[in-house]
Fold this sequence. Notes:
The complex is a heterodimer of chains A (278) and B (293).
Chain A: H1 9-21, H2 26-41, H3 48-62, E1 78-83, H4 90-103, E2 108-113, H5 120-131, E3 134-136, H6 144-157, E4 162-167, H7 175-191, E5 198-204, H8 210-221, E6 226-230, H9 240-247, E7 252-256, E8 264-266, H10 269-276
Parallel strand pairs in A: 1-4, 1-5, 2-3, 2-4, 5-6, 6-7
Antiparallel strand pairs in A: 7-8
Chain B: H1 2-10, H2 21-37, H3 42-56, H4 67-83, E1 98-103, H5 110-125, E2 129-134, H6 141-152, E3 155-158, H7 165-178, E4 183-188, H8 196-209, E5 213-219, H9 226-237, E6 241-245, H10 254-263, E7 267-271, E8 279-281, H11 284-292
Parallel strand pairs in B: 1-4, 1-5, 2-3, 2-4, 5-6, 6-7
Antiparallel strand pairs in B: 7-8
Helix pairs in contact in B: 1-2, 1-4, 2-3, 3-4, 4-11, 5-6, 7-8, 9-10
The complex binds guanosine-5'-triphosphate (GTP) (2 copies) and magnesium ion (2 copies).
One guanosine-5'-triphosphate (GTP) sits between chains A (84, 86-92, 114, 117, 120, 169, 230-231, 233, 256-259, 263) and B (106-107, 138, 190, 192).
Amino acid sequence: LLGSPKIDEELLEDIEETLxxxxxxxxxxxxxxxxxxxxxxNGELKTSQDIVAAMKERLGEMLDEFExxxxxxxxxxxVYLIVGINGVGKTTTVAKLASYFKxxxxxxxxxxxDTFRAAAIDQLLIWGERVGVEVIxxxxxxxxxxxxxxxxxxxxxxxxDVLLIDTAGxxxxxxxxxxxxxxxxKIASKEAEGAPHEILLVLDAVTGQNAVQQAEQFSEILxxxxxxxxxxxxxxxxxxxxxxxxxxxxPVKFIGVGEKMEDLRPFKSKEFLEALFA
Amino acid sequence: xLSDKLGQVFSKLRGKGKLTEKDIDEALNEVKIAxxxxxxxxxxxxxxxxxxxxxxxxxxxxxxxxxxxxxxxIVMEELTSLLGEKRVKITVSPKKPTIILMAGLQGSGxxxxxxxxxxxxxxxxxxxPMLVACDVYRPAAVKQLQVLGEQLSVKVFxxxxxxxxADIAARAVEFARNExxDTVIIDTAGxxxxxxxxxxxxxxxxxxxxxxxVLLVVDAMTGQDAVxxxxxxxxxxxxxxxILTKLDGDARGGAALSIREVTGKPVKFVGMGEKxxxxxxxxxxxxxxxxxx
Lengths: 278, 293
Ligand SMILES: Nc1nc2c(ncn2[C@@H]2O[C@H](COP(=O)(O)OP(=O)(O)OP(=O)(O)O)[C@@H](O)[C@H]2O)c(=O)[nH]1
Ligand SMILES: Nc1nc2c(ncn2[C@@H]2O[C@H](COP(=O)(O)OP(=O)(O)OP(=O)(O)O)[C@@H](O)[C@H]2O)c(=O)[nH]1
Ligand SMILES: [Mg+2]
Ligand SMILES: [Mg+2]
């Protein structure tokens, strides 16, 4: 095998740097690098352009099954549960989703399921006002399960099309908080046919490898149906979704690209990949 | 964990007197992986492992330590020294009030940490702090700080509708001076380091009130982007310290190392939960242990 072609060391370093700095993670980066080394050594990839193209292709394949449209209930109320750790952008995403569905002609209502954090209810009430949708809220410190129960019944009574439930941020390592969320989910599933039709885990694009733990732990207690990656308007590339998609088979449905109600886009893997290498 | 992995690398080194370069490279590859998995910035990892290699090369294997222990010892020492000293306190200005400006990306924990800091300074340093609500954008941001202030019986200064954050801050400092508050903590809106307008705004606040402390609030789970944003905030505002939040999660916290390495600023506190009492001093040795995994 003497003289079999090898990837140029400097190109390899550049590739590693590009992939790592996008938060793609050790396991995935090593997998891609080994794949490229193999293809170079067997002569399949000849030039550095070939190698870079093969890298992009490989990443594209990984995201193949990873985009999906939001699910709506054809027969009645669609209930969405929005979950995630503290500060990732859940409440703002709820407002954006409300604006999105409203612009599609849907009658939207919001449920202020964060009954814990200071001014969380106020925050959602203001958003509801701005978007022009009704918000069902209780008092701060109230039981989130009871709030969800009331919100679903109010939404059904008002013939709403979509009910978006905001929840309190919580660390996935806190068993009691995760148990509370499981209870909220159970209530939602009992009170509306087929609910929740979407359980969206919100991930912050700035997050490093911990996103994998977040996705794993949340999917352990809830049957997640989608991911939302926020703050992609920053310099973080959100490459963590490669590692997340490997561990938890849940598609990315939306991305957040700003703080205004219109800053939500359906996730398109092709665009995402282009932005990764921009 | 890293010790186990290094143990495997070195299990074939029994009886050798010195670590060869090849042995060290193999061990350092494990260190590199551990640090990258912990979210330490790629370039920081490269510089760090180079430094460790220099120390490890030619190091005699001490009779009291195995090669694994030797390398881990060097790595731990380098990590701990890079992470800095513990218990670096908040500056106290001889001319009151001491002004503290909080800065950081969206959702990093600034508002919550501002309240925590007020409680900490009152309890631990017998200060009489005042909070200033300079986030005029986020829905109910001012209310959030007011609710926290109320829970802690800490005065919260809010501005008038439409007032610029820099003017609110200036008026707040004046108010504090007249009402004998010895510390002013200014909460600001979350912002992207690439948002020229918002970065210009926080620069305006800093220029107007000349803070004694400018603290960058960073989420412990921050990935590779930590270096980009910390560099920008530091170059614009000359940070005086870092506060690492959400350390009660299970993020390894490698961002702390990256930010320390590129800014050289001390980590003054860590956030260990949502309650106002959950602010703790930074322990570099514990952080090093956590990063290595
Ligand atoms: N730049 C940017 N900021 C965002 C985006 N999404 C949310 N934010 C900001 O992130 C911060 C936190 O957003 P929230 O919606 O309060 O986050 P949350 O998950 O509900 O927070 P908790 O309820 O406290 O856990 C706010 O300042 C938002 O404006 C985004 O896509 N881009
Ligand atoms: N578990 C945990 N949660 C925290 C910690 N610090 C802050 N939080 C939570 O993180 C979320 C965001 O905190 P905020 O204080 O609103 O963050 P912020 O930086 O002011 O957000 P913006 O003003 O929108 O940029 C809230 O749910 C807080 O309760 C911490 O140390 N641990
Ligand atoms: Mg929220
Ligand atoms: Mg805030």
